[in-house]
Amino acid sequence: MEEPSTDPVPGIPMSSERIAEVRRDTKETQIRVRVNLDGTGQSTLNTGIGFFDHMLDQIARHGLIDLDIEAKGDLHIDGHHTVEDVGITLGMAVAQAIGDKKGITRYGHSYVPLDEALSRVVVDFSGRPGLAMDVRFTAGSVGAFDTQLAFEFFQGFVNHALVSLHVDNLKGHNAHHQCETIFKAFGRALRMAMTPDPRSAGVIPSTKGTL
Question: What is the helix (H) or strand (E) element at residue 63, kind and residue range?
Answer without folding.
Answer: helix 50-63
